[in-house]
Amino acid sequence: MPIDREKATLALDGPVNRVRLVSPARAKALEKLGIRTLRELLTHFPRSYVDLSSVETCASARIGETCTVRGTVHEIKLKKPRYNLKLVEIAVTDGTGILVVTAFRQPWLMDQIKAGDAVAVAGKVIFDYGYKRMTNPFIEVIGEGEGITGAVVPVHPATEKLSAAWVRRIVANGLEEAEGAFDPLPLGLRLRYRLMSRAAALRAIHFPQSMAEVAEARRRLVYEEVLYLELFLMQEGAERSRDAHPTAHTVNGPCVAAFAAQLPFALTGEQERARDEILEGMAAPSAMNHMLLGDVGTGKTVVAGFALAAAADTGGQAMLLAPTEVLARQHAEGLGGLLAQAGVTCALLTGSTPAAERASITERFAAGDVDVLVGTHALLSDDVAPARLTLAVIDEQQRFGVDQRTRLLAKGEAPDALYLTATPIPRTLALALYGNLTLSYIKHRPHDAVSRTTRVLRREQAGEAFDAASAALSRGEQVYVVCPLVGKGAEERDEKAAGKQSDADAAGEEYHPAVAIEDADDFDDDVTAATREAEMLQRNTFPDYVVELLHGGMGTEAKREVMERFRAGEVQVLVATTVIEVGVDVPNATVMIVEDADRFGLAQLHQLRGRVGRGTKAAEVYLLSASTREESLARLAAMETTDDGFELAAFDLSLRREGDILGNRQHGASGLKLVNIMRDGAVIEAAHADAAALLDVDPDLEEPDHRAMAREVRLAFAGEAVGG
What is the model's pTM? Predict the structure, then answer.
């Protein structure tokens, strides 16, 4: 019977329970994996592969290497070494020796594996307690007559209720359901880059004959992911200014000149270049969509001040959105003061602004009597209605989602958009995430001549860090202690990470923790631990100084008061959670101690240490780690060798892929399932150029060769807001 290609294509977005072997119970288990449709099933890619073409014996398996061993389960035991920790220990024999397998937090293996079962295990071999061992390896029970020699076995993410073997079977049936579906990628693009068809790529990535085939399949699917994201972002930007009348700003007016004249310092060459690029974009008759990437302390805010002054010179208005009230107030006081001296009227609006004052500010803004309105999420409220918004500036833009950025831009008619971020990201990542933005970079701090050293210390060396803090305090300087402690100890966290490490080992990659807080319910523990730390430091370590605590669970006014006291020098030691990561500027703070630094990505650590060394005094940063993993300490060591945020970001990405660097983006992240920003730079650049070329000749993707692709773009980003 001939294949119905249209039916097969539409089946991709049908429910997954239509796939053979997907019972109601398995459908529920698949839903926990985020799989509800056939399309989601087919893009549930293997997390790693096990090459069973070369199987070692227990005796021949080499210590420190990743390999596959086939044998028989001699014994399997469930152990509980302490409260809330279960592990399964399996002794595998093959006539040449014994291999002990330890599986943390997988008690269900007791129901799946029995003594006498033939198994294949793949992972990194270590030697411990007199035996060769594997920790959380890939484990598969081999059925009778099931040959494994010469096979490449995909390891799909699974759940307790649905093993990797069952996921594999269901995916195979899903591929049959989708057989004959249209390939949405135009033939010309496939031929240009010699790309597999989509059907061939999906089959090869799930069930490859070799790892070379995996690479070719991945190349096709990565290009497709990035191309669709680029098309969406570029169309999104075009839609924002469609049928609108953007403002061509005056960029050499009196406010801009006055702002420049009364700056208490000279701009650096990088700052001048970024300023000129932004003003050039604002002077154009089309809506500017520009991002200023500047490392911590590089003076992005001052550069943005020129843009705000240009809006005032043009007779327009500007809004500056900040993620926290502390940062918004800092902008209103610092940048707002400079703008006021240049003849630009500014106001501050936050969630804590009293009702009467809020009504007055919104009324004046609506009448056009306020040139620049600085604020937090309060700016997004419906009662904030500018008379003529021509510029929107979003600081620490990675903290805002698409919807929030869109709501701000919707308050004007195609206003220019300027995004500021202190998250240093390479050009390829910027292209992948932000599509049609133009970019400016500021890579060096004005005070680069000021020394800032970073040292990584084990927990037992913590005294060195606190001695340095005491010395700084005696000189009249101030200290940060960042306390991301949670209830779990380092040993327990290491065990929790063992499974992820095993996955990474199988994939030939390194695993590193990606976030500071492991679970949502850890927040209360965070606050408790930070409170204890502050009390202990006040009582035992710094009894002659004022120690106070700052954390995200405090009220807005309480946080502001603490920061004001710290900024004024009334508080000498500030114990804080990562709430200080963004925008807190205290030039007299010269020492930072970060507890449990191994819990952070390098980009986040770099942002944290940017809170010291912002003045003219030398700064010291101490990263304390209680982890027993040498890999964690080695990663942290990169912080000692460079103070360049962009270099660190590239290094972090090479280890951890995008991780938390994606920030609060509400689209794009879920679509980038295969992209590795560092490895796929050439593919990203090509897809970016191809998307621009396609839309140049067919802005709405209406040509016959593009319709299937347009449908894929709509489906990939269904429900996403247009803008920003």
Answer: 0.63
